[in-house]
Every structure is written in structure tokens, then in C-alpha cells.
What does this fold into?
Amino acid sequence: MKDSCTAVWEAGLSTALRNPADWQDWLVHLRDVRKLSDATIRSYRRDLEAWSDFLKEQNLGIQQAGRREARGFMVLMSSRHMAPATVNRRLSALKSYYEWRRRRTGAGENPFDAFRTLKNGRRLPGYLSYEELENFLNYCKDNFAGRRDKLLFELMYSTGCRVAEICSLNVNDVRQHKIRVKGKGGKERVVFAGKEAAAALADYLPLRREHAADNSDSQKALILDLQGHRLTARGVYYIIRKYAALTGISKKVSPHTFRHTFATHVLDEGADIRMVQEMLGHSSLSTTQIYTHTGIEKIKQVYRLSHPHARRSMEEGMEKGETHV
It folds into this structure.
């Protein structure tokens, strides 16, 4: 049986790229050495294909590409008004590939070396309100699909796990409130689920045992699809879109929305940001800091109540009858 990374390059690399063997080796390097996730590898593969297509239009191969071509590619992306995050990911993929190739073969310069990442006007992540979250849960029916969906929503919200982490969970990874998760780069961490998730798990497991398909992976998998096989990330997206439509939520809702919701809510309740970083499995604190957006009023409140100068100015204002906004 082919593994998921093999499927990544068999999905068109041999026809899309001028030097498939070279790029195939690089994808193996990403998987086995850098331990990147399948989703990241797929994104990098698409980025490389875009670069390859650009070069084909100029009748050039990988070995012939230089800074002029790299500059042209960057200009093309800019003219198409691509999001900074997309441009930066493509730049990262191509820099990484050429650097790997240079170390491996002694090939010349990296055409993308001179280019820096764009300042990312990162949009604030969307999240669900408590009411919207309750609406999701209230629409879950009392049958296999409904109990599974309720467990899915509870796990995503109470742990903040990525969709791939949720889909990869096995039954023996979960011990009521304690869950062992395999995250990005194969790093393991322990996350905790609340009593609502534990109750949803207890309701779901009896039906899961009856529903599981007769193969080793399905027998191990925690979250199953309607055919009894391990639920995929695509399946989770479909389920969430269905519930968003049922509950009348017009904004875009995805599995990552639940992760954003987890982070936003725990930070709003006063959780330490470094603890949230650990819970989310972020390697960098700066990634976690994007979730502090809704905490501005709370930060302002804490500052006013705890900083001596701020507290004194408030007291003086109160004596004068001023209202501080």
C-alpha cells in the first residue's frame, strides 16, 4: 500500500516537472529528514510545479534558471495580487529546494537567495462565539453520525488540535481527559479534553465499535466516516460546512476555526500565552501571538488595574469625575 507522501508526487510530478527524479528525492528529504507534514509537502509540490510551468513558457529547465527568471516569477506573483503568505511559502519552498540541490550536487547559486519574504499583513484568525459553538453542538443528532460529529467538535474545541492530528488519533491515544497527539514534524505532545469531550467520547465509542470496517487501520482509528474507515481531513471540512449551513453561520468556518476558537477563548480567560503555545504545539511564540487579537480590552483592563502609573491616573480621574475609555 502506498504511503501518503508517495501519492503526493505520483499525483502529477512525472508529467509536470522537467526533472522528476531530482524533485522526487527532495520530497523524500522533506518527509524523512525534515519531517514535514503531508499537507506541507503537497503545498511545496504545487509551488514547485508553478515555478516549473513558468520556466516552461520560456523554454528553460531547472538548471538554466537564474536570478532574472526568479525576479520574473516574483513579479508575476505580485501582478496576480497573491496573498503575502502564499508568496512567502512559494519563496520558502524554492529557496529550500535550490539550497538542498546545491548541497547535494554542488550546483551553482540559488536563484532566490536575493529575495526576502514579504511583510505578511496577516489577517486576524476567525473564531466562533460561545453561542455559535453551542449551535454546532445542538444540531448533532443522536445516531452514529451525530455522536461522531459531537465528539469531533468537542475534541477540536477542547484541545485546539489541528485537523490532521484529530484524524490521526487512535482509540488507544485517548484516556478520558488525556490525549496523546502526534503533531507537525512527528513531535508528540499531550493535550487535555474537558468533561464535555469525555462525555461525547463515552456516548460515541459503543457505536464506533459496531461501525468500524474490518481492516487494521479502521479498527484502530478513533473518528470514522460513514463507511467505517478513518475520517479524512476532507471529510472533516465537509462536515463542518454542512453544520455551518444548518446553523446559519455565514462566515467561513473550517477545522482551523475551531483551533482559533480554542486559543482565543483560553487566552480570553487569562491563560498564559506560553502555556497556550505548548497546547497548540507551536514551535514559535510569534505564531501563538496572533490569537491575542480579542484580548485587547482584557489587556487594557489588566494594565489599568495592575500598572502603578495607570492605576494612579484612573484614581485621579475618578476623583475628578472623569470616565476612562
Observations:
- Residues 84-105 form the longest helix (22 residues).
